[in-house]
Amino acid sequence: MCAGTYYVTVKDHNGITSIDSIVLIDPAELDLSISTFDASCGKNDGKAQVSVAGGSGNYSYNWSNGDMINKADSLSAGTGSILVTDNGTGCSSSKYFTIENTDAPTLSLTGKDIACNGDATGEIS
Q: Of 32, 43, 108, 123, whose CB neighbour count within 10 A is largest?
């Protein structure tokens, strides 16, 4: 059943009616916020930490690198993910994050567009 107010009416064999209601509440959605700390160039020293709002407040964590607490260590540059499960409701939410390389080489490209359609006069330097 979905969240909302539900009413039940019962009538016995004597025609006496009784009415009652109950409200089913939708739990707050899990809202994940991830802070990342970039990896040194070529090293596995990046970090990520998740903050969770909503739900019951009792969470389980599953990072793509196998860490099982609210933070992940020893991350290399690239994309990772976190799955958070609310242990009180069984509801889950996931989010992707990116760890960058610090001290990585810097690129600066310039280009010259092709003069005419079909020509091979473009340049990249």
A: 32
Task: Kindly state the average pLDDT of the residues 39-45.
Answer: 88
Q: Identify whether the C-beta of residue 65 lies closer than 8 Å to the C-beta of residue 74.
A: yes
Cβ atoms of 1 and 24 within 8 Å: the answer is: yes
The DSSP result for 69-91, as a single string, is SSEEEEEPSEEEEEEEEETTT--
Q: How many helical (H) and strand (E) elements, i.e. helices and strands, does the chain have?
A: 0, 12
Domains and CATH numbers, the chain: 31-102 (2.60.40.10)
What predicted TM-score, i.e. pTM, was given to this entire model? 0.67
The pLDDT of residue 74 is: 93
3-state secondary structure (DSSP) of residue 108: coil
Evaluate whether 86 touches 59 at the Cβ level (below 8 Å).
yes
Between vectors from CA 67 to CA 37 and to CA 75, what angle results, nearest 5°?
35
Cβ atoms of 100 and 77 closer than 8 Å? yes
